Amino acid sequence: MHFFSQAFDYEHPWSHVVIGMWHKYPNSKCTHVVSVDVLDRSVDPKTGIIRTERVLGCKQKAPLWIVKLFGGSEDAFVREISFVDPASQNTTITSVNLSLSQFATCFEQIRYSPISPHRTSFSQTAEIQARMALWRSAADSLEKWLVQRFEQNAQLGKLGFTDVLRTLWEERHRVPAS
Amino acid sequence: MANSLSAECTPLKEKYDTCFNAWFEGYLEPAVAASSSERAAYSKQKADEFEAKCGKVWQQYRECIQRAVKEKGLDKLLQQAREENPLKEPPPPPVVQTFKKTS
Description:
The structure holds two protein chains of two kinds.
Chain A lengths: L1 E9 L3 H8 L11 E11 L6 E10 L4 H7 L4 E11 L4 E8 L6 E13 L2 E12 L1 H46 L1
Chain B lengths: L9 H24 L2 H36 L2 H11 L10 H8 L1
Helix pairs in contact in B: 1-2
Organism (chain B): Laccaria amethystina LaAM-08-1
Pfam family, one (chain B): UPF0203
GO molecular function (chain B): phosphatidic acid transfer activity
């Protein structure tokens, strides 16, 4: 598992940052995000918390070995869930990759909260984890296959050498007899 | 405004985003200022208003995007992601803050 984290402040009130959040893309500095779609949104009639589920489409060239090994493509999609809680003035955004998710997951969490009427803190953490269960089962099948091949070859080796020994010594015994 | 993943849905998405942003910008500051006794009434009123203002375009956009998600083969991946992380509640505050509160 690998971790990433960073934190800094924006010189804007929390409400401005949260309003701005919906205007982040398209962005000339983040051209890898090419589409944003809302899949679900609810406004809790008691707490006023807004929950939004979005899917972001990204275009990013993956290293060739990743494309070859995992069959990735330039299009990658991310599921993002955000909560805007006006009572606690917390906004959290959780994102997980949909593409290549059978091999590895990138779990990102972002939080915006006010530190003064004019400043908002931003914190971001990400956990990147290969799906070890998958590697383990693949490694296990590979080992089973290798041991079977080894057994077969060992069996053939025994039969083959038995033949060689028989032929060799039968001939040698025949020679002095003649 | 960012495009939809399906060009066909982009016009509906733009209408929906415009509707949501207008509603949200009016919603947020009074929601922050609301006292705990006012919160439920304000939230209910604004939730109803959002439905009344944006509900129709949302239905149209949602139909379009759900179809597009299926066509791209994302529906199964989404289903799996939702099962693994339903995320129905806001995540708890970071561990550091929890420590401070409990100690």
